[in-house]
Amino acid sequence: MTDTAEQGGEQSAQERLRERRAAAFLGAERVLARAGFRGTLRERLAWLQEAAPEVYDLDEPGDMYGNRIVEALEDRVAALLGTEAAAFFPTGTMAQQIALRCWAGRTGNPTVALHALAHPEVHERSALSEVAGLRPVRLTGEPRLPTAEEVRDFEEPFGTLMLELPLRDAGFVLPSWEELTEVVEAARERDAVVHFDGARLWESTVHFERPLDEIAGLADSVYVSFYKSLDGFGGAALAGPRTLVEEAKTWRHRYGGMIFQQFPTVLSALVGLERELPRLPQYVSHARVVAAALREGFAEAGVPWARVFPEEPHTHEFQVWLPYDPDVLAEAAVRQAEQTRTLLFGVPWDRGGPGLGITEVTVRADGLAWTADDVKAAVVDFVARVREVAGEAVETVEAIETVGK
């Protein structure tokens, strides 16, 4: 078999697994999180039709190029975050590029200091440099936010410090409030402005024990997402001083973000602020119950090594690390859902190293029904299937080696 054929076969296997995972999710009776985007189009439209009258007068005219209902959402976000103004954007990538290039123009320095695992560095195909003409520099690659010392002692000037709160790819981690305050102060000492990548800032209030406006008030500007935690259709907002926001709107037009009508997405964002935002603290609290039960469950199941990170989640999302090949873990997770209608791990498993699989766990409304005993029972069942799949993989390898001889 050629390399190309092997790659095609592997791709097909991965595609089949994705299809099975999607079908298993739809058929599962028990999940820890049932995000709306996984539903059918009919379900999403029905949800919006049912919820929209709660948040906006549907007899009002629709929006055109960012007015009316879009402005209502912008005002709501500015009030929640305690900023002078906010601007709606179709994507967070666009919002942050524009925010950072606006700050670069004001500071005269295109260098942006950020974490090596920050979203622009990992998920945006070098957009800051390729599109916005900025120069990102990495303060650290450690699985935590940069420290005040790292900011203060960085070897070259930078105009903007960007902090992702929470830092998703490090395990949805947050610093302590004292650490965050010190980092911001260190940036100010260097005459740098501070921008928060707050895609998931909404759920940080529990960890910081501070309201949203106090958290956002530390930064010069803040970006927030409407779908990552609030279950909207998409969209983002940039909040900050009115002069910055007005300049950002000009760039929004230049970037192609002045969409003719956006009311479905904006309505879903307003629904998220009304329904999901107040529930996020409850999700965070229960995520800590789930995390503890997962640790206990893996120990009871005799897994030689397992890690939940952070040990006490900072938000309602966290990582799980297990000493098995991610392909084995993925197959076991799908089988559990197919055979028991319980989906414990619904997110793909990534390779963290040889024989190490890493996944993310999110706890939302559906997860609140799970007791600690429910979680532990599901873990024991999952581990049994992991061992089953691993055993099958060994038998397959042995059979191939026997044929080869």
Q: What letter string, H or E per element, gives the SSE order? A: HEHHEHEHHEHEHEHHEEHHHEEHEEEH
What structural category arises from helix and sheet content? alpha/beta
Q: How many domains, as an integer?
A: 2
Net shape: globular
Strand-residue proportion? 5-15%
Enumerate the strands of the largest sheet in spatial order, edge to edge or round the barrel. 2-8-7-6-5-3-4
Q: Which stretches are poorly predicted, pLDDT < 50 over at least 5 residues?
A: none
Mean pLDDT: 94
The CATH topology name of the largest domain reads Aspartate Aminotransferase, domain 2
Percent in helix: 40-55%
CATH H-level superfamily of the largest domain: Type I PLP-dependent aspartate aminotransferase-like (Major domain)
Summarize the biggest pleated sheet. 7 strands, mixed
Please work out how many helical segments DSSP would assign.
Answer: 15
Distance between the termini: 18 Å
Total DSSP E strands: 13
Query: What's the alpha carbon Rg, rounded to whole Å?
Result: 23 Å
CATH class label of the largest domain: Alpha Beta
CATH architecture of the largest domain: 3-Layer(aba) Sandwich
Write the layout of secondary structure elements.
Blueprint lengths: L2 H25 L2 E2 L9 H11 L17 H13 L3 E5 L2 H16 L3 E4 L4 H5 L3 H4 L4 E4 L9 H5 L7 E5 L12 H13 L3 E6 L6 H4 L3 H5 L4 E5 L10 E5 L1 H13 L8 H13 L4 H21 L6 E3 L7 E6 L3 H15 L1 E2 L6 E4 L2 E7 L9 H33 L1
Parallel strand pairs: 1-11, 3-4, 3-5, 5-6, 6-7
Antiparallel strand pairs: 2-8, 7-8, 9-10, 10-13, 12-13
